[in-house]
Specification:
Layout (H helix, E strand, L loop, with lengths): L2 H7 L2 E3 L10 H10 L18 H12 L5 H19 L1 E8 L1 H5 L5 H19 L2 E9 L4 H13 L5 E7 L11 H9 L3 E6 L6 H9 L4 E4 L7 H10 L2 E4 L1 H7 L9 H7 L3 E4 L11 H11 L4 H14 L4 H23 L1
Parallel strand pairs: 1-2, 2-3, 3-4, 4-5, 5-6, 6-7, 7-8
Helix pairs in contact: 1-13, 4-6, 7-8, 14-15
The chain binds hypoxanthine (HPA) and zinc ion.
């Protein structure tokens, strides 16, 4: 077995993937036609072209205006998980969705959540992959809107919705703005995470951990600018959900051998790999491992450690994590044999 195929076939957990960033180009075209929505080009593949986080977010919003009915939400969740399974042997995902991206267009919270859950259940049934959901604050929203969204998520609570997160452009809107939402979600028992130090200072990580109560950090690359924050996160065993390809594109680290993820690993931080917005960045969870591990010429031990970190960083309970580790160990033993043979 080739090393690239081994990396693709490693069983995986993914904790940083936005369902709205997983729409297949064909699905965007289908939904746009179904709902009579005009797109800027009929060549949908060309929609996914941009150079900055701001251009990306504009297209993210446009593409998502085609997702309206519960069945549309079910379709995108299902296809997204199918792609994860087929392209990267995905076993478990905690998947972001941005409620206000949809509710501000008049879509009901229950339509979004019930639709996504339907798609997740169908994918679990067909492919064995499990998925839980994390509602994301869109940080360019006013704090009052974020709080209302959080309360609405709690009012429409389902077992599958396990966390609150925060995304969109970090630089203009610091995490403390959304303290109240995180307080309410934490008190209600949701797990907490946030995109942080992706496009902002390392102090945002401290704010997310200490003020907002976040349990893990999404991205986190600018942590390297502050040794004290690095030491604290290493000592506390904070996990970082890193995304090689998406940040290579919009934050200018096109060479994965010099991407800050490498220095984070060297500094002893706990990282694992994720696809972020796979179709929008023309990647998938398998390709993230093939490209990042392959281009850095890391050995199988490193790839396996990244995979294990993903399991440990998840919000599964201890028994579920132990069970997943066991299942992964069995699959990996067979892959190790195939690689050696
Ligand atoms: N960063 C910021 N906003 C986003 C991202 C991301 O990785 N993905 C979707 N929206
Ligand atoms: Zn993200």
């Amino acid at each position: 077995m080739e090393y690239a195929e081994y990396l693709r076939q490693l069983p995986k957990v993914e904790l940083h993937c936005h369902v709205e960033g997983t729409l297949r180009p064909q699905t965007v075209a289908d939904l746009a036609r179904k709902h009579d929505i005009a797109l800027p080009t009929t060549d949908v593949d060309r929609i996914y072209d941009y150079e900055t986080i701001y251009e990306f977010l504009e297209i993210f919003r446009l593409v998502n205006s085609t997702v309206i009915e519960a069945g549309d939400f079910a379709r995108i969740a299902y296809e997204s998980l199918e792609d994860g399974v087929k392209l990267g042997n995905l076993k478990y995902r905690e998947m972001f969705f941005n409620p206000t991206l949809h509710t501000t267009r008049g879509v009901a919270m229950s339509t979004i959540i019930d639709g996504l859950i339907d798609g997740c259940r169908a994918a679990e049934n067909d492919f064995g992959v499990r998925c839980r959901l994390i509602a994301d604050i869109y940080r360019q929203d006013p704090p009052e809107m974020a709080l209302q969204m959080t309360q609405e998520v709690l009012a429409n609570r389902r077992d599958e919705v396990i966390g609150l997160g925060m995304d969109a452009a970090e630089a203009p809107d610091p995490p403390e703005k959304f303290f109240e939402s995180f307080r309410v979600a934490g008190e209600a028992g949701l797990h907490l995470t946030s995109h942080s130090a992706e496009d902002g200072p390392p102090s945002n990580i401290s704010t997310c951990l200490d003020l907002l109560g976040c349990e893990r950090i999404d991205h986190g690359y600018h942590i390297l600018e502050d040794d004290a924050v690095v030491a604290r996160c290493r000592d506390d065993g904070i996990h970082f959900t890193c995304c090689p390809t998406s940040t290579a594109v919009v934050y200018g680290w096109p060479d994965l051998t010099t991407h800050p993820i490498n220095a984070m690993m060297k500094a002893g931080l706990l990282v694992h790999l994720n696809s972020d917005d796979p179709t929008m960045f023309r990647t998938d969870i398998g390709k993230e491992y093939v490209d990042f591990v392959g281009q850095n010429e890391y050995p199988p031990e490193t790839a396996k450690q990244l995979v294990r970190n993903g399991v440990d960083a998840s919000w599964l309970d201890d028994a579920e994590k132990a069970e997943l580790h066991r299942a992964f160990d069995d699959e990996i033993a067979a892959l190790d044999k195939a690689l050696a043979g």
